[in-house]
Amino acid sequence: MTVWKKTDHRAKLGVAVYNFKPNGQHQLQLDVGDTVYILEETTDWFRGYTANNKAQKGIFPRSYVQVKEATVHISGSLETVKSTEPALVQELTEVLREWHVIWKQLFMDKSPDVEKVKKMILDLIDWRSKLLTRKYTVDEQRGIQQQVTNLIDSGNALLRLDLVVRDDHGNVLDPTKHSTIEIYRRHVDAAEQIRKRSSMHESESETRPSWPSSFNLYVMLRNFVCKIGEDADILMNIFDSKEGRFISENYLVRWSKHGVPKDIDMLNNFRVVFTDLGSRDRNREKVFLVFQIIRIGVMDPRNVDNKKQTQGIRRPFGVAAMDISELMQGLKESKEDDQTFIPFQQCSQGEFMDNIIKKVIGAREINHKGQGLWVSLKVLPGDLKQVQEEQIHLVLPGTAVARKMGFPEVIMPGDVRNDIYLTLRTGEFNRGSKTTDKNVEMEICVCDHMGKVLQDVISFGCGGDMMSEYKSMVYYHEDKPKWFETFKIAISTEVEFKGLHVRLTFRHKASNEAKDKSEKPFAMAYVPLMNGDGTTIEDKTHELMVYKVSKPHYSPTAQWVKSRDVDLSPPSSVTGKPLKLLGVEGKKHDDPTAYLRLPSTKQMLEVMTQQHGGGKMNLTSGQYSHSNRDTLWISTFVCSTKLTHNVDLLGLLKWHEVLTDTKALTRHLQHLMKEEGEEIVKFLQDLLDSLFNILLQNNNSELCDDLVFDALVYIIALISDRKYHQFRPVLDAYIQTTFSFSMAYNKLIVILKDYVDKADERREHEMLLRAVKSLEYIFKFIIRSRVLFAMINEGRGKQQFEISLKALLKSINAMMLYKTEHTVLVQGAALKYISFIINDVMTVFDAAELSHLMVEFIGNVAKDRLIKTKMMCIDQIIQTDLFKHPGCRHVLLPAMLAHTRELMESRDEMESCVNVLSHIMSQLWGHDIGPSEADVTAIMNITLRTIIQSVIGMDRSSTLVETNKQLQKIFGHQPPPSMSTIRAPINENCVAVMIAVLRQMSETHYQNYIHSFPTTFDLLDFLMEILMVFRDLVGRSVYPTDWLEMIMLQNSVILRALRFFATTIHEKFSNPFEQQLWNNFFHCAISFLTQEPLQLDNFSHSKRTKIITRYKDMRRETAFEIRGMWFKLGPNKIKFIPELVGPFLEMTLIPEVELRRATIPIFFDMMQCEFMQPVPNSTRIQGNFHEVENEMITQLDVLVEGGRGDEQYRDLMFETLMHLCDGKEPEGLQQQGKYFVEVVWKLLERLLVYRHIIQDEVKEHRMSCIVNLLDFYHDINRQEMYIRYLHKLADLHLGCDNYTEAAYTLMLYAKLLQWTDEPLAPMLHNSKYPDAYTHRDLKERLFFEIINYFEKGKMWEKGIELCDELAAQYKEEVFDYSSLSKIMKRQAELYDCILKQMRPEPEYFRVGYFGLGFPSFLQNKVFIYRGKEYERLADFNGRMQILHPNAALMKTLDHPGEDILSSDKQFLQINAVSPVMQLKPHFEGKPISEQILKYYRVNEVQVFTYSRRSDEGSNDVTKMWLERTNMTTTYPLPGIVGWYPVISTETVSVSPIETAIETMEDKNKRITMEIEQYRLNQTLRIDPLSMSLNGVVDPAVQGGISMYKEFYIGTEYEHEDQERLRTLTIEQVTLLRDGLMIHKHRAPESLMPFHSHMEQRFCQMCTMIEQEYGIKVADKGFLGTSATLRRNQSLPSTGSNRRSDGSISSLSMAPADLKRIKTMRNPGYASSTTPRNSTVRTQSVFVKEKGVSTSLQGSKSQSKVSLSHLKKRVSQVTEQLSGGMESSQRNSTELIELNEQLTTRRPPRPDSERRGSRPPSYQMGSKTNSINSLASSESTVTSNTGNRLSGSSDSGSMMEEAAPPLPEKQNNADYTNVSSPSDPPPVPRRPSSVSQRQKPLPPVPSDDAPPPPVPRKLNFPPS
After folding, report:
1. Helix 1335-1352, helix 1299-1311: angle, nearest 10
2. Taking a C-beta distance cutoff of 8 angstroms, is the pair 32, 18 a contact?
């Protein structure tokens, strides 16, 4: 026994990995990807349910499911299972499922976005897989989340899905935890981000990532592949190719001659971070990472093994460079694991390093021969500290930091730097006594004023050790070397800079080591690092003076050194750490007392020369003398936070030196306020310290205090400027950590108060304005100073400080009272910046007191002054910490709301007011603000009504859809809703504020607000307003349709409010009753319930689940509220009938079962209410519910057609209302109610079918549905609906060019009108003829329109009938002879068309729709279709198969069995039928032209027939019985549609002799028509007549008339039939003779032998007839006068049987047949029985079989084309012959003249237009294909019929066999056209079936059938 156990909580969630189809009981179907919740388990099975259908539980195999980790949360009885996967992975899963469904649909629709969406899906799948590995760091996951969410949001926008709102971390926002205002702002931000990301025209800067102001470049050198042979230094740095300089210091890597690092521990560990990079570096055009390789060894690498060579010479070797511009600009990403190869270019002999760098940078390709460097790079955003903390896996301990040669964009406190970068540029040296140029090597060191060298102050940059001496590269035999080497001099700030200088010594470097040791310095140069005025060396290129070094000799100081500006004396004292000096006193050429007295640069020489009057000077000092032929250029760049080039800054930094010098101090302070910001921010901390020291220690307070304050304000304003805003954190950090002046607050308060107090006295307010703008930091200094003082002095002076601070604030408040123009700017600045001081002031001042001061501050501003700025100030105060205190809000909020309400009521500064309110509501949502009920009460009482009225007054015109094409260009597709509308932020924000207020109002708030209205009228006014607002918001939402969260939040708030208001309405306005208020409530609630965002059934599963989980189904809750309110109406219900029927119907049509069950009973309540309504002034009740009934039918039609309702609704409504009607009193209500419920059920059934079919492309189905509804509305007398659908049907016909059917449809409309001047009822008005106001006007115009359509449809006879009716009106009623003239001319034209124009005769087809797969109006029914022009059976079959592609063609005409009738499939049974002409009474007994009769043969017919063989056993025509089926349709065809159902069917058997009689009659008619045609038209070709005659006199197949011998001599046949056959035979002989006479006269000479042959065969046939059949034939020869046609004494036969060949012919039912038609009602297929075995004829049903040859198909197809039948009979001749009279008697009859123009039925097509299955026209002459051959076209086909619907036949040879011809198909033998009373009676038929009848459709207007009665209202019997 299987044991089931509950699953562990960790295994309650799974995903189907295989498809599982149930094959047993209780099994659950699974599809791949289904989420499965597991309840129980066994060894091999799970039991549970899928997320898509939680109601259906079942079992499924364990192996088909992948179990996922999950957590279970239990809340009461509710168990919630959630996956433990990261939230982002879960979101990805849902997104992929939703996108996949949409992508498949896009693929089916061939959308251009298919590939784009596919790529997005694949990217998301890849990201999901990576996230599931969980191997990423937190920072990497944050970056991935950003990319993934961006991709999801962009994809949702592309697919027009809902906007996903996220928090700051990229997670989906939970609306229950955030305020309404924040949710709205998140929507705005998300939409804006999507717009930016999707923009195709963004600027380059916009496409870059949003980086911080600084970033870093991480580089890791992985390997260096190059054959050097000696040790090398690799210098790595960043190079700007446009500026031609390095922007960072070097990173040094020492590489050994063995191809590995010198320090083997550094292998794969060369890491460097180039830091301090900022926005300026990001915008550089071309940036390269450059590697300079410097060889360290011998002079010539070829002598590397020579030990005598000088070692350690630095020689250029080569350069490698990589373009990193895109990486720096953020256009390209690089991961730390990616390795990049940088090719290496070696220097050629004598090539400078600078030149090779430019060469490599400019080269497209480098022939590196496999030599180069492998590196990894990555850009790291943030400053160095942030990188070191967050990127610890990259920036390991020991990672080198290469600083930028310049300052970062932000210099933080503590970032002390004192670096000088010196670049050796180029030099020019005399070779002196040498024969070749020197190998110049430069040695650089830093010396103090004593000439002692400072230790360890020089470096390459980073990565190497500090050095005391730097040696340059050596260029071999080069007297003009270009070094371009940069190194760093880093001197501690504790070292005294005065007297420090850089000494540069030049030596010749010999290749031989022995000679090199003897080389002494041949020259030197120096440059001081500090100028005489204390400023540092300038950042520029310096041309240094080069001095030769001669043998030492001692001399006094040079005599010219007397300049006061050059202070070369040693400093008096040195502070700080003692210097490490290099002991070089013994080297005489280093004597500092010599070269320090000489000018260091050419610029200094020029200055000294000018001071000496321009005379020539002796530039010699000691062993140093100036060398005129040697020159050196260097560049310096100072990066120091302690040293400056500015004298005034230096003066302030050394404030203690000028403190007593008031003039100098004043100058320095004044100059400070004129300085640019770069130098000030560099020394910000030191400058601030100096200013506060001066402020507190200066002796001249009155003068200096203001200047210091102004300087302080200047610096603060500078930092506040946007250009230097990044230094605000520096200033903040200084105040909090470095600022230490505890007494500064007193002076600052006094100075600022003095400025403010004198505001109105001064005309120039520049300094005051600047001070007010700097209020934030001034108060920060004041507060920080006070805090420090309190810390030092244990809180003393608090009261005095608060008094001073309050006085200052009061002064500021008083300043706001001024109304002078010159104070406007200051007041505006105060309003703008006052809020910035609040948070700091609160730390040392009472918050409540501060709140009162702020209220006073705002209130002091004049009402008409600075309105917008004042609202901005209020808004800023709301966002401070002051507003978070409940006591402060109690003071602030009423004043703020009062200001806001006043402006909103005047519609002034609406945007600012809405922003203020939105910030208030956002703040009140917070959890750290204390209790907020009182605040919400204040908002509710003061501003709620104003907010609602503002929403009512919103300008909604700006939310129209934007048609600008620019959006489509930006998105590349249709933009999402949030982008495709012109949004109005003020409207959205205003609504959000209203929703926020209502959301934060509790039940108590609602009750208090309702009770706050002084009168009921005020409350009524409010409720009317709010209901109007709600209805407008749900009907026209201010938010884009893809803002799902915002719209659903709004709906939830509105629903909650409606509940409160419903209670209020019931309690307050039931007595007295306020109908308009109740009405507004119902309409508002129903509009809310039916709005599109709540229709969950239209959403995807995931979206529906999300909404229900968070908000439930709000439709159900609203419906229950509406139901409750309806039943609370009591006796007032009648006031809402029938107005609310439509809205309630719309509500009940919502596809939610519980909602429907709850609300459908309302309709019965309405019916009962109207039924029981008392009649005024009577004791009777009304006794009916006509208003409910009429409104419900009208509204159902509109709503169901619009897409509402389903079968479940139909059945539920029927069941519910029927149950309510049962047993209800009085009895009349029960009867009428049940009848009406049945009517509604039938209407819904038809409307649902119509709605389903109306979407179908098959217009025939739509027409059928409309006719179905027309029938229904006609039966229940709903005239207005009847007319509505008449117009729809007519329009549908006109769209298909069905002009005949459109005319018949409009005839029904016209029948509803009378020929009177009665005004039109509203329902009869026609929008096409708006100026027709009476019945006569509209009917007349309709008649003209109908005549026009009949003319287009070539139904001229029907048009003539309407002309007659119009003419009668003009002639006898209105006496409008002008119109009479016109209509008679029109009528004449129509008569002319009948006789002169050709019109094709349509074919008719029987179609049986069997099986339940068809629509209900087609299932198991048989229809007769009227074919289109020139449409044959094959064409019709093709058309029907296109309309029903899933239907199978039945191959037999047998009645389908029950298996087919009840099958879910579709089966078609199609065959051709022949119409049976029904003669007009006024045609009886009159000679009628064939042109006239042709119309009636195929039009206005209601009976159709077809025949088939009963037995296939024998081909003997004497034993061949036929089964003939006669069918009657509901209405004649054509009609309002091109098809009608068969309502009755009769099947009769036709004996062989009857078939022969019909065949003979048909052939005689054909010959008669041909003879008449040839008599009237002398131009016709003779070939068709030749073939027709020859086919009878000399039949090539089956023997012709000889087959009928048994009929003439047999004894078992009826005598009347034999006599009739003999009469027809004599008639045929006479016609053949006349035809041969015509042929003789018309045939050309070439056909005369053929004619003679036919005459001979004719004579033989006559002889055979006399000898074998006993029929005497007169005039066998052609010597006498020709036989003539006799005038018909009666109408010709109109019957032509439709049998196997399917040719066109007209039918006339014999009286005997008509009497035997028995009908029965049967909506389906009429069964038939025959006296013999039931057989089916061939070729009536179209079946394609592979065995049919093309030629045979062509012949059969061609055989269907026949000439127009001439219906002239020679009845007198046949009478005389049948009576045994001689030919002389026949010839004596009256001759007639046929003078009508005869034309063929259908003009022959040119060969180029023939279908492939038809033979060309030249084949018409063959005997086997002759359309007039009795043997080939009739007998052959008939002889091959069988019980198969197959078009195949035997080979052509079978057609050539001699055999008696089969009789041609006929309807019935036509005996009505014989005038003689001696004519034999008709042969009796054998009926074999009972006919069936269907319910008729609305009648088509005709003379034979009366028009349908004008619909009237339903009248029920009185109760």
Report:
1. 160
2. yes
pLDDT digit string (tens) for 628-653? 889 999 999 988 877 776 666 776 77
Number of Cα atoms under 13 Å in the Cβ half of residue 1628: 28
∠ CA(946), CA(950), CA(956), 5° rounding? 170
What tokens appear for 440 in the block?
Answer: 């110049």
Map residue 70 onto helix, strand or coil: strand
Residue 485: its H or E element = strand 482-490
How far is C-alpha 574 from the geometric centre of its chain's CA atoms? 77
**SS3 label, residue 1140:** coil
CA-to-CA distance for 727 and 1462, rounded, in angstroms?
86
189-226 exposure pattern, b = at least 16 Cβ within 10 A, e = fewer: ebbeebbeebeeeeeeeeeeeeeebbbbbbbbbebbeb
Q: What is the pLDDT of residues 359-417, one digit of tens each?
A: 999 888 888 888 999 999 999 888 888 888 888 888 888 899 999 988 877 776 667 78
Query: Cα–Cα distance between 619 and 628 in angstroms, integer?
Result: 10
What residue has token string 């740095």?
237
Q: CA–CA separation, 1130 vs 1126, rounded Å? A: 8
In terms of Cα–Cα distance, which of 709, 705, 651 is closest to 679? 651
Torsions phi, psi for 553 (to 5 deg):
-145, 155
* pLDDT bucket at 1727, cuts 50 / 70 / 90: very low
Query: Is the separation of the CB atoms in 1690 and 1872 below 8 Å?
Result: yes
Nearest-CA neighbor of 1479 among 1695, 1316, 1658, 1327? Answer: 1695
Pull the structure tokens for residue 1796.
Answer: 């009508």
CA–CA separation, 735 and 776 (whole Å): 12
Token pair 């008409």 in the structure block, residue: 864
The CA-based angle 156-158-164, given to 5 degrees, is: 20
Half-sphere exposure (CA, 13 Å, Cβ side) for 1334? 7
Rounded Cα gap, residues 1295 and 1472, in angstroms: 27
Positive or negative torsion for Cα 363, 367, 371, 374: positive
Q: 1522: part of which helix (H) or strand (E)?
A: strand 1522-1533
What is the number of H-type helices and E-type strands within the chain? 65, 37
Going by C-alpha positions, the residue among 186, 192, 156 that lies closest to residue 170 is 186
Contact 1042, 163 (CB under 8 A): yes
DSSP three-state, residue 1243: helix
- How many other C-beta atoms can be found within 10 angstroms of the C-beta atom of residue 1307? 23
In whole angstroms, give the CA distance from residue 828 to residue 769: 9
- Residue 599 to residue 608: CA distance in whole angstroms: 8
**Quick check: bond before 975 cis, omega within 30?**
no
DSSP of 1356-1380: HHHHHHHHHHHHHIIIIIS--HHHH
Phi, psi of 1480 (to 5 degrees): -70, 140
Is residue 1807 within 8 Å of residue 1817, measured between CB atoms? yes
pTM summary value: 0.69
**C-alpha dihedral, 1192 to 1196 to 1197 to 1200, nearest 10°:** 180
Q: For residue 238, which phi and psi values (nearest 5 degrees)? A: -105, 135
**Residues 6 or more apart in contact with residue 777 via CB below 8 angstroms:** 716, 719, 720, 731, 735
DSSP annotation of 882: G
1775 pLDDT exceeds 60? no
DSSP state, residue 310: P
In the chain, the amino acid numbered 278 is G
Query: pLDDT, tens digit, for every residue of 1221-1240?
Result: 987 777 788 889 999 999 99
How far apart, in whole angstroms, are the C-alpha atoms of residue 183 and residue 1043? 10
Give the angle 759-765-766 at the CA atoms, nearest 5°. 150
